[in-house]
Amino acid sequence: MSSSFLAAAFLLLAALSCHCHVARGWCGLGVNYGTVADDLPTAARSVEILRAAGAGAVKICDGNADILRALAGTGIPVSVMVPNEAIPSLAASPAAGGRVGGR
């Protein structure tokens, strides 16, 4: 597959997952950033695409260090998902500082 096709597919999926976070004081494109696919762009290129698309927030399904580094300093809010069974131990951890929780 060509990179332009993948970029177009990525933007289409991003548009389909659009949602608005009015409660947090901003409204924009919310993107679920998945990594289960072939021939994905690099993390740095993905962030360029996210910024060009006007992403207001990103949700990633794991703590991929390359993705987190690429998003660092962009000002884009990031949510990192964890498996349900890990939530109780994370919530009890003093390192979480009360930041682990539900909606």
UniProtKB/TrEMBL annotation:
Keywords: Glycosidase, Hydrolase, Signal. InterPro entries: GH, Glyco_hydro_17, Glyco_hydro_17_plant. One of its GO terms (molecular function) is hydrolase activity, hydrolyzing O-glycosyl compounds. Residues 1-25 form the signal peptide. Pfam families: Glyco_hydro_17 (PF00332). One of its GO terms (biological process) is carbohydrate metabolic process. PANTHER family: GLUCAN ENDO-1,3-BETA-GLUCOSIDASE BG1-RELATED-RELATED. Belongs to the glycosyl hydrolase 17 family. This is Glucan endo-1,3-beta-D-glucosidase. It comes from Oryza meyeriana var. granulata. The lineage of its organism: Eukaryota, Viridiplantae, Streptophyta, Embryophyta, Tracheophyta.
